[in-house]
From TrEMBL:
<dbReference type="GO" id="GO:0000400">
    <property type="term" value="F:four-way junction DNA binding"/>
</dbReference>
<keyword id="KW-0067">ATP-binding</keyword>
<feature type="binding site">
    <location>
        <position position="328"/>
    </location>
    <ligand>
        <name>DNA</name>
    </ligand>
</feature>
<feature type="region of interest" description="Disordered">
    <location>
        <begin position="1"/>
        <end position="24"/>
    </location>
</feature>
<feature type="binding site">
    <location>
        <position position="323"/>
    </location>
    <ligand>
        <name>DNA</name>
    </ligand>
</feature>
<dbReference type="InterPro" id="IPR003593">
    <property type="entry name" value="AAA+_ATPase"/>
</dbReference>
<feature type="binding site">
    <location>
        <position position="194"/>
    </location>
    <ligand>
        <name>ATP</name>
    </ligand>
</feature>
<dbReference type="InterPro" id="IPR027417">
    <property type="entry name" value="P-loop_NTPase"/>
</dbReference>
<comment type="function">
    <text>The RuvA-RuvB-RuvC complex processes Holliday junction (HJ) DNA during genetic recombination and DNA repair, while the RuvA-RuvB complex plays an important role in the rescue of blocked DNA replication forks via replication fork reversal (RFR). RuvA specifically binds to HJ cruciform DNA, conferring on it an open structure. The RuvB hexamer acts as an ATP-dependent pump, pulling dsDNA into and through the RuvAB complex. RuvB forms 2 homohexamers on either side of HJ DNA bound by 1 or 2 RuvA tetramers; 4 subunits per hexamer contact DNA at a time.</text>
</comment>
<dbReference type="InterPro" id="IPR041445">
    <property type="entry name" value="AAA_lid_4"/>
</dbReference>
<feature type="compositionally biased region" description="Acidic residues">
    <location>
        <begin position="1"/>
        <end position="10"/>
    </location>
</feature>
<dbReference type="GO" id="GO:0048476">
    <property type="term" value="C:Holliday junction resolvase complex"/>
</dbReference>
<dbReference type="InterPro" id="IPR008823">
    <property type="entry name" value="RuvB_wg_C"/>
</dbReference>
<dbReference type="GO" id="GO:0005737">
    <property type="term" value="C:cytoplasm"/>
</dbReference>
<feature type="binding site">
    <location>
        <position position="33"/>
    </location>
    <ligand>
        <name>ATP</name>
    </ligand>
</feature>
<dbReference type="InterPro" id="IPR008824">
    <property type="entry name" value="RuvB-like_N"/>
</dbReference>
<dbReference type="InterPro" id="IPR004605">
    <property type="entry name" value="DNA_helicase_Holl-junc_RuvB"/>
</dbReference>
Length: 366
């Protein structure tokens, strides 16, 4: 994903199969379906109860809460939660993103205009320029920013006191945040993939909001094929609705869900074309691995970053892919899923190869 692509926000990493490009329509749809309050936010029970506590305590103290960092794969609700935080605090939210802050001056301008208690949402915070990052530490800790006036030896720093405010940072790559910045966040919420039941709750509510009739088995079929991701669930719901309206009874039922999802290349386990592409490359071209991330990404024609943040976490979590010190390897489950016979036991995919937790950047070999 390039900075340009980010800035017009039409490129969405999870949009890669069913709805390439993430259209205007998509953004309108997302905005309309975003839960507004914590109580309407299903799933993520741990993060949501922790956050409820942090916010309630702040409310009782009558002071802004600690800064909050939200991390996790795309489409799990980081932006939604940032907006919910502001709504719960009844404060305005200022939204910007790491790639939009290329100079410390960009950040200084934003910081110096913040009102007391305001929420500053910094999306993709790991992509902020280094000098801006340093300015942010100081602002987060001491509510102070040094405005540099002039250039060269005559430049002077004029300290500016800021009213207390709350930074909400979001990142798909917490491991890339420098430790001093990470440490400035009093609360970090790690979002994890959603259970099928939580996705079904979300889909049920959204079908009603979209005025689409649905059956429980239709909804649970979509939920079970959504890669644990609400954004994907919402998108698949729309595709099944389309199918039901054009070819079916207009009802999102099991039949419509099965046929429409097959049409859009989402398999029974919810893996899409890119997921399967990665597994196929791994098994067919690299004999199951291990193979480096970059090599694997090239084989499927994707950026290593996309493979690492969008594709891999889910495949690792579901046990299709194993991270080893020597690279990525296919598990027996991957071979089985592709209907292929795994190589004989001497293969490097054998169990016992240590796996590394994704998300920790120590685990990156590439
Ligand atoms: N818990 C939830 N309940 C209902 N809808 C949700 C939930 N979490 C996310 N969504 C929906 O999923 C979509 C994506 O959510 P959101 O934009 O908050 O994800 P994100 O984590 O910020 O993704 P990215 O990393 O791509 O920015 C939105 O349409 C949102 O309404
Ligand atoms: Mg977001």
């Amino acid at each position: 994903m390039t900075d340009d692509a980010y800035e017009d926000s039409s490129i969405d990493a999870t949009a890669r199969v069913v709805d390439p490009g993430g259209t205007d329509d998509e953004r309108r749809f997302e905005a309309a379906l975003r839960p507004k309050r914590l109580a309407d936010f299903p799933g993520q029970p741990r993060v949501s109860s922790q956050l409820a506590l942090v916010l309630e305590a702040a409310r009782r103290r009558g002071a802004p809460p600690d800064h909050v960092l939200l991390s996790g794969p795309p489409g799990l609700g980081k932006t939604s939660l940032a907006m919910i935080i502001a709504a719960e605090l009844e404060q305005p939210i200022r939204i910007t993103s790491g790639p939009a802050i290329q100079h410390a001056g960009d950040l200084a301008a934003i910081l110096s205009s913040l009102a007391e208690g305001e929420v500053l949402f910094l999306d993709e915070i790991h992509r902020m320029a280094r000098p801006a990052e340093e300015m942010l530490y100081l602002a987060m800790e001491d509510f102070r920013v040094d405005i540099i006036v002039g250039k060269g030896p005559g430049a002077t720093a004029i300290p500016l006191q800021l009213p207390p405010f709350t930074v909400v940072g979001a990142t798909t790559r917490a491991g890339l945040l420098p430790a001093p910045l990470r440490d400035r966040f009093g609360f970090t919420g790690h979002l994890d993939y959603y259970s099928g039941a939580d996705l079904a709750t979300i889909l049920h509510r959204n079908a009603a909001l979209l005025d689409v009739e649905s059956t429980p088995d239709g909804i649970s079929e979509i939920a079970s094929r959504s890669r644990g991701t609400p954004r994907i669930a919402n998108r698949l719901l729309r595709r099944v609705r389309d199918y039901a309206q054009v070819h079916g009874t207009g009802v999102v039922d099991l039949d419509a869900a099965r046929t429409a999802l097959a049409l859009f290349d989402v398999d029974v386990s919810g893996l899409d074309r890119l997921d399967r592409g990665v597994l196929e490359a791994l098994c067919k071209r690299f004999a199951g691995g291990p193979v480096g991330l970059t090599t694997l990404a090239i084989a499927v024609g994707e950026e290593p970053d996309t493979v690492e943040t969008v594709v891999e976490p889910y495949l690792v979590r579901e046990g299709y892919l194993i991270r080893t010190p020597r690279g990525r390897a296919a598990s027996d489950k991957a071979w089985e899923h592709l209907g292929l016979a795994p190589p004989e036991p001497t293969a490097p995919t054998s169990a016992g190869t240590p796996t590394l937790p994704f998300g920790s950047d120590e685990g990156r070999f590439g």
